[in-house]
Amino acid sequence: MSALIAEDEILHEAELVWLEDIAALDYVRQSLDRLPTRRGKPAYHRDGRMVGYALLGPQAKPSRSSGTFRRRVFWLLPHDRDADPEGLYATGAPAEAVDPRTLSPGRKGRKTERSEGGPLSSAVREPGNTLPI
User: Fold this and answer.
1) How many structural domains are present in the chain?
2) Global pTM value
3) Phi then psi dihedrals of residue 39, to 5 deg
4) Nearest to residue 52, comparing CAs of 5, 98, 114, 120?
C-alpha cells in the first residue's frame, strides 16, 4: 500500500512507464511487487488492469534471499472510479491510491482533492494551472 511505501524503498527508480494516458485517471493504486528484473513490463496477476510500472536503475540491488527486485506497479480494479463512476469510490479512494499526477521516479505520490473524488479547486481549474508535483 502507498502508506507503507517509504521513499528509501523507491530511490533507485529511473523511470515510470505508463500503459495508458493518466490524464483521464483520478487515481491509481500502487504497490511494491517483488519482480525478477530491474526493467521490462512485469507479469500482472491481479483482477483489473495494470496501468503502469517503475523501471529501476543499474544501482538497484536484488534481495539477497530471493534475488528479486522491489518495483512499483500501478493498477486499477474493475470497481474503481474510472470504470464505475457512481460506485464504491464515487467519493474517496482506496488506501493505496494516489493521484498519478503526483508520481515521479523515487517519489511515492499523494492523495489530492481530485483523487478523493472532490471537485478540482478553482486555482487548478484556471487556464494554465496544473496540480503541483
Assistant:
1) 1
2) 0.85
3) -130, 175
4) 98
